[in-house]
Amino acid sequence: MDKYVMQVQYRISGHKDTSETLTILDLPSEIVTDIFQYCTSGVGPIVLPADTAKPPWTLLSVCSDWRDLALEASELWSCMRIDLRSVQDMPKVLGLARTLIQRSGNRPLLISNSANMNDPKMYEKTVQFVQDIVMPAARRLRSLSYEGWVEAIVPLLTSPPGSLPILEKFEMWGRRLTSQDDLFKIQATAFQSAPHLRTVVLRAQYNPADPTLLNLSWHQLTTLRIVDLYVCASVLSTLLSQCVNLVNLTIDEAFPPGPGWNPAQYPIFLPTVTIFDGTLSTREYGPGVLLSALCFPNLQYLTLRIPQTTQFRHLEDGIDAFARRSFANLKGLCIIGMSPTSNLTTYEHLLDHISLVVTELQVPLVEYRSISFSQTVLSRLIPRLEMAPSSLRFLVLQVLSCDLENGTLAEVEEFHARRGLESVRMLIEGSIGAAHQQKVDELNEKALGMTVEIVPPRNLPMSSCVPIEWMSIDLSALE
C-alpha cells in the first residue's frame, strides 16, 4: 500500500495546477482493480445468461478506459453460475463462459450451476455444462457446486487422481436419471488427490448403495452438510467415522435408519465437532432416533430445527442421550420452530424438555436463540426461559412482525431485567405499526443491553431458515 501511496503522491506532484480535479484513472491500476472488486463483492457470482445491468458488466459500459481496466482485472471474472433453466442458446452461453474463464487468467475458479431436475430434457444441458466447462477447468476449480443428474458428472468423479489439485469446496445436488445399479459402484478417483478439500455439501434425491460413490478424503473435511441423502445407518456410521477432523456438521432430513435400527450398534463419536445443525423428525425411524447415536463431547454451538409435525415420538429419549454425551461444553443453543402453528404441542414440549436437561446437567450456556413464527409460541416462550440455567448471558429472539402482540416487547424487557442478562437481541421481520415502533425506539434509547431490530422479511419457506449468525464462523481459525 505504501508503494501505491507514493505513486499517487508522485502523480499529484506532476500537476502544476493544484486545483485540477483528479480522476480514478490517475490512480494506479492495482488500486482501481481493488475498487472494482469492492463494487462487485456484494453481488455474488456472475450469472449466465448475463444480466448486463449488474456488475461487473456495468463497469464495461462507463468508458473505454474503464472497460479496458475491467477486462484486464482477472479477479472480476473467476466466479460464475450458469442458470441452465434460463438458457435458450446453449452454445452462446457456453462460449461466454469460456471467455470468462479466459479473462480470469490463472486465478482459482468458483463455478456453479442451476438446473430443473423435473425436466428430463435438461439432462443434455447438464452434460454439456460438465463436458465443456467443468472438465476443462478442473485443475483450477477452488469451488464447484453442481446441480443435476449424477450420470452427467460421472466423468469428473472418475477422472484420474490429481485432477482437482486446489479444490476446497464441493457441493452436489444430484438425481439419478436411470436405475442402473452399476452407477453407484464407481470409484470417485478424482477426490483421492484433492489435498485442499475441506467442505462438502451433499444434497441428493438418490439412494447410494455404497459410500464409494464419493470416495472422498473424508479425514480432510472440516465442514460437512448432508441434506435429503437417504442411506442406511451402517453407511452413515462408516462415513462419519472417517471424518476425524470435522468441525461443522449439518444433517437435514437425512438418514432414516430403518426398522430395528439400534443406535448402540452404530455409534457416531466425533470429538472434533464443535458446531452441529440438525433437523429433528418424529418419524419412527427418523433423525430424532439418530440423536441417540451421536456423541460430540466438544460441541459448542447447537441448532435444533423442528419441522412440521404433531408427534413427539422418540425425540425425548434421543435428546436425553445426546445431551448427556454432548452438552458439557455447550455455549450456544438455537431452537427453530419451522412451523410451530401446526406443531405447537411438540414445540412447547421440546422447549420444556431441553430446558430441564440443560438445567439438570448444569450446562454453562452463554447464548440461547429461539426463532419463532407464532405469537402463541412467543407468548409462552418467556416462562419457559425462566428454566434456563443461571449462567445464561445472551438471548436472541426472532419473530415475524405480524406475530407481535401488545405487551410482548415489555414482557421480553422484564425478563431481561429479572435475569440480569448481558444482552437481549430481538429481530422483527417486516414492518410494524406506530405503537410497536414507539416501544422499539424507547427500548433502543435506554441502551440497557436490550436491542430491537426491524429486518426485511426473508420471503423464504419456513423449512429454509437462513443459518443464524453464530453458525457463520470462520472455520480457518478452528482448523
Account of the protein in words:
Helix 9 (315-326) packs parallel to helix 10 and helix 10 packs parallel to helix 11 (375-385). The protein is built from 13 helices and 17 strands. The protein has a 15-stranded parallel beta sheet. It has a two-stranded parallel sheet with strand order 9-11. With 479 residues, it is α/β, with parallel strands linked by helices. The longest helix has 17 residues, at 344-360. Among the domains are: 108-218, no CATH class; 222-392. It is globular, with a radius of gyration of 26 Å.
Oligomer: single chain
Radius of gyration based on Cα positions? 26 Å
Largest beta-sheet characterization? 15 strands, parallel
Strand order of the largest sheet: 1-2-3-4-5-6-7-8-10-12-13-14-15-16-17
Q: Which structural class is indicated by helix and strand composition?
A: alpha/beta
Q: Helix-strand pattern, N to C?
A: HHEHEHEHEHEEEHEEEHEEHEHEHEHEHE
Assess the beta-strand content as a share of residues: 15-25%
Number of helices: 13
Q: How far is the first residue's CA from the last residue's CA? A: 30 Å
Tally the beta strands: 17
Segments where pLDDT lies below 50 for 5+ residues? 180-184, 207-212, 459-479
pLDDT average, as an integer?
76
As a percent range, the share of helical residues equals 25-40%
Outline: globular
Summarize the structure.
This protein is α/β, with parallel strands linked by helices and 479 residues long. The chain is 30% helix and 19% strand. Strand 15 (394-400), helix 12 (408-419) and strand 16 form a beta-alpha-beta unit.
